[in-house]
Amino acid sequence: MVTKTKKPLVPRLGSERVKPAPFRYFRANSLAEAFAAYAEAEGDCTYMAGGQSLLPVLSLRLQTPSLVIDISRLEELRGISLANGVLRIGALTRHNEMLHSPEIARYAPLLSKAAPYVAHPAIRNKGTIGGTIAHADPAAEFPGMTLALNAEFEIANSEGRRREPANGFFRGLYETGIAPGEILVAIHVPVFGEHDRCAYHELARRRGDYPLVGCGVRATIRDGVATNGRFAFIAVGAVPQRAFAAEAAIEGQRLDETAIAAAQTALEQDLQPDDDSETTGAMRLHLAKVLLGRLLREIALSPSKAVEAAA
Amino acid sequence: MNMALNNTDRPNSYIGRSVTRPNALRLLAGKGRYVTDIKLPRMLHAAFLRSPYAHAEIKSIDTTEAAALKGVHLVATGEDLAKLCKPWVGTLDHFRGMKSAPQLPLAVGKVVWAGQAMVAVVAETRAIAEDALGLIQVEMSELPPVVDIDQAREPDSTRIYPELGDNVAFKLTVESGDVKAAFAKADGELEETFFTGRHTAVTMEPRAIIADYNASEEALTVYHATQTPYQFQDLFSRLYGIRESRVRVIAPDIGGSFGMKLHVYNEDMSVVGLSMLCGRPVKYVADRLESFVSDIHARDHRIKTQVAYDASGAILGVKVDDVTAIGAFSTAPRTSVVEGNQVVRLIGAPYRFRDYRADLSVVFQNKVQTSQYRAVGHPIACLVTESLIDRVGQKLGIDPFEMRRRNIVTSDMYPYTSPAGYKFERLSHEACLDGLYKLMDYPRLREEQKALREKGIHRGIGIAMFVEITNPSPAFYGVGGARISSQDGAIVKITPAGEVQCLISVGEHGQGTETIIGQIVAEHLGVDRELVRVITGDTDVTPQGGANWACRGAGIGGETALQAAKKLKQNVLSVAAAILQSAPGELDLINGQIVNRSDRVERIPLSEVARISYYRSDTLPPGTNPQLTAAHHYSPQGYPFAFTNGVQACHVEVDAETGFTKILDLWVVEDCGRIINPMLVEEQIRGGVVQGLGAAFFEECRYNESGQLENGSLADYLVPMACEMPDIKIAHVETPTQDTELGAKGCGEAGTAASSAAAMNAVNDALAPLGASVSQIPMTPQRLLKALGRG
Q1: Is the pLDDT of residue A304 over 80?
Q2: Which CATH number goes with the domain that contains B666?
Q3: B115–chain A nearest CA distance, Å
Q4: Does residue A212 belong to the interface with chain B, where contact is any CB pair within 8 Å?
Q5: Domain endpoint, select from A174, A190, A206
Q6: What's the CA gap between A200 and A206, in Å, rounded?
Q7: Does residue B522 register a pLDDT over 70?
Q8: What single string gives the DSSP state of each residue in B150-170?
Q9: Which residue in the set A209, A280, A290 is minimally distant from B658, CB to CB?
Q10: Where is the domain boundary, A161, A190, A219?
Q11: In the structure, what pLDDT confidence band is assigned to residue A62 with cuts at 50, 70 and 90?
Q12: What is the pTM of this model?
């Protein structure tokens, strides 16, 4: 996916339309076919998986590629599997599968907790995790959560495959570590440990909308002491963001009100959201702090996965 | 007169019953026929190039490249269509001193809002037409936009139309009693300024039109997603100089209208001219982005208020200064000042204070026009009034129910004329308040609220009473010179098989008109409802009438159908009497059978009367000419309007840390007079409530300083969705109007009228212990946080 522009909100001369400009369509049956088609079009093309972000972009004529390469049938991009303590989620896994998969719920529960917030059922039936990560909308749930999970991305190109960590992958608004012509193949997530806990919540005006702020937290809690806290925020800037200072504030601490307040204060160093026409940056930061506090209280109180499994 | 209709045990008794919609299966099966579904032979498609600027001069337009594109049939500019179409002006005489500039199908010389159509392209397909738009070169020079209501009225402000003198469309003062004296003797007074957000209708089906001009017979057929086909027959005829009898407007299935689909739109007027120029049918369907910048908007008001009261909580007087901005034009043919007029005339309507002064200023600005949208002015007047009542009550420590009981117009006061001049035949405020109190179990809710507050949970309860204008007489528009009919017509006929067709001028656009008309005709004629087919929405077929606006389908259309059915029944009985050698007065029609009036013994089936009338009239006595078709027209002649009333309550939970509100419950007790179909009334109320809650919490057209709409898409403009809506519980009080035999009044706008106000009162009730309050809708989390000092 090479979507780079967000749609403008004002009508512009002749550009804001609801019918795509004419394009050719090619369905790839293998990665090799997809790369060959890409090379042949000399980059004047785009890959399409679920199409849930791409089709509106085409319809608004914000992109006018001469070729759309449909990668939604590539078997190589499908499936969820577990090996060596790592869960591999195929890029074509649909949002709806993310929501209902027992493997996701067990080994990457933060993703299944975020999944109900992803759009609406019709979109979840078509949209894919690979698509949303490659698209990298800063307000989308799954891309942000890969940061909290320390995920790694498996990316294919005509030369072979490579890995890139989630941390640092989101470079700018709709910009990622995927180079032109490359395809995201899978997401690798270290499995959720026995003492790990996680929670997700977001503040959206309506269910299924992009939120004003969203946050996922995970931490290892042993004997009441939190370590390896990783907090990921969405809709707070051009890219989803980790909150390193807030994480440091709870490292080795009991998750009591003092530690939570310290994490909330530290969040000011992590997030500097901009003002927009409806919401000030200060308000967004306030909401982020409220959300972080609620999520940390939730994981402090929630039973660990081991206890949940026993129940 | 109305009493007889209460007998729901009789055969063919349908009035008052929740019968199902005859068109539901067809629509659910996807067999609806909307304008979008209609494809005519040789049909072409139009697309419009729109202004990117709110205010600019058009220096030049170069259409050469667009016209040369394969598949393009015509590229038309404002000048091209101005040669065919006369300009129209959105003013009416009874709004004294109002002004507005003439409008044409496409912009000529300058544009006055971002999104205004400048050039039309007609092509083989919509996609080709849109491709061609990208090839049109327009040279424009920006002018300073007028976007702010105060800026618009400054002496040195840019004039949108210099020839009009200033940017003020209309000013009105409504004064009654002695408001100065009321304030002088008051124990207390308070003031508040309210803001209501500009929003829009967002119908499921957008505006859509096909114009098919036939030059060989100088006739025009228009398939139009409209709620007022006869009004458009008149407009297309007069503005394009086509004989009225040769203009046919067909309104097929309509996917929602809400007042938005009865105004003159530039694109709709253009399409007629484009068909004339091309000599072929031309279709245009607004896409959603176009809808946001070209459908009418509504409700952009700032209302400064002062209220005087005494120690007992009696409201003594109210002062209002309402400024509303309507865009660059007043919309034809109803004008854009009706909303403001109704705001200042409906403020305080349920209450008995007499001393009132309201000043209304309606100003132009460089935005798309505002005009009539569901519950025109009511939600704003209700918000202001009900918030003031609560604010006074809060100051004096008087419960909201008690405040209202002390101030309402009571049942012994009718007929009653409000300070603003509205005449109320009979309203039922006490019964509605009592009904609501029970329905919501008010004391229990208050106890629960108290207990939860101690746990830091902030719930609020808000109440709002409303009075709604329905069944408008010619006093609404006709007196102002508008060619908008207040009467409706019905033709009811018996087919040779003894079945019934009713052709009626009121239309169906989702609200259930055809269902209730069928119920009324079946009951008053005396046949099974299954035998009655209702036909609407075709000016060549259905009789002339006002159709659908201002809540008149049931009250006026229903009475028309009732009288037509009664007339036809008499005709049927006359023929039957001739056949049976009886007298019409000795017979009755029950369940499709002619029976003896005395003992109800069946004499002859209606189908047999029809067969003889149509095929064997030779067997009838000489001089018998069966009239198995009856026509009737009806226009209200008693009260100028049939006012309805009711009360709503809203229950919310405010998250004081985030400013987010959860709507927990909503209750409505309403009185729309005689209820024809409780299920449909409740559907109308629920839909209306949701639109009011949309205004209260979600919907707002946000413009920036340069006059650009910033959220003109369904991703950014938030319409209320099912997940955010509460259960809506409804109860009814019935006070039929005595002006008609049917006794029905309107119910389409009652839900919208008061739900924003109930919601604001609920939110303010929740915020009260935190020392905060809001006076602006929509009540977004951002605004609530600001009110809470956390923004």
Answers
A1: no
A2: 3.30.365.10
A3: 7
A4: yes
A5: A190
A6: 17
A7: yes
A8: HHHHSTTSPPSSGGGSSSEEE
A9: A290
A10: A190
A11: confident
A12: 0.95
